[in-house]
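Methods — Computational structure assignment.
A single polypeptide chain was analysed. Its primary sequence is given first, followed by the predicted tertiary structure written as C-alpha cells.
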Amino acid sequence: MHSFSIYLLAVGLLLCTACDWQAEDVGVTETETGRLMLGSAEEERTAERSVSLEGRTLVLDGLDGDVNLQGVRGDRANLTFTRLGRGADPDDARRVAGTISLEEAGSEEQFQYMLRAEEPKLSRVNIKGEVPARAPLNIKMAHADIRIDSVQAPLVIQSEHGPVHVQQAAGTVSVQLANGSIYLSLTEVGSDDEVSLKTKNGDITLRLPADSEASVNAFTGTGEILTRNLTFEDKTLDREGSGYEFSGVLNEGGASISLSTQNGTITITSLDAEEENGVEHRAFPEELFPVDPAPPQNQNGPDTD
C-alpha cells in the first residue's frame, strides 16, 4: 500500500509538472503598447451581431478584452466581437480561438451575449459597436478596458481589473471594480438616480452639472478627496487613517451618489470646470471648499474566421 501511494504521488507530480511546462511553453509577447501577453502567436476571428432591443437591457457577459460602445438613436444594437486566441505557435493559437464561444439568450426583459472559453488565460474578446442610447446596459467582464459614450440609461459595470471611462451618461450608474480607475461624466442627474462608483485600487473622477441635486458620500482608505466648482452644503469630513470620509449636499439633495476607493484619489467636479488648468480644492478645512455659487427579432451576421 505504501509503494502504491508513492506511485500515485509521483504520477501526480509528473502531471502537475507537465501542466506547468505547458503553461510556460506558450511563450510571452510584448505588444506595440508594451503590454506583456502569454503566447507567441495569435489567431483573430470576428463575429457580427445585430439585435433590436426595444427597451430591453443589453447584457454583455465576457472574458478578458476591451469594450468600446457608442450610444446612438434607435433600438438596434450592432456589435463586433473580435475573438483572440493565443498559443505557442499559429496552430495552437487557432485551436485556442476555436474554443471561444459566443452564446445568446433573450427574454422580454433582456438580451444577453455570453462569452466563454476553455482556456480563458489565453483568450480575449474585444467588443465594439453601437448600442441604443436609451436602452439599459449591463457589462460583466474579467479584465477589460471599458469605454462607454452617450448611453443615457441605467448602466451597470462589473470587472475584476481595468479602467472604466464613461462619458455623456445620464441616469443611474453602478461601477464596481477590484482594480482600476473610474471616470464618469454625467450630463444630467435626476432626483431619483443612484450613482455608485467603487474600486479597491484606483482613482475615481466624477463630473456632473453644477445645478445637480444630490447627496454625496465619498470614502478613501488611502488618498485625498478633491472638489472643484461645486457648492456643497452640510459638509462633513472625517480623517480615516490615511484616507478621508466626506459627505455633502448639492442644491438641497435628491439623487444618491456614493464613491469609494481603498487606494486612490477621488475628484468631484462640475462639467464646466477646466480639467487641465482648473484649480483643485481639497475637501479638507472649510476655507478650502469652493464657494462659487414582445420579443423582437434577432438578426445574426455570419462569423468570419
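Note: Residues 136 and 153 are 5 Å apart (CA to CA).
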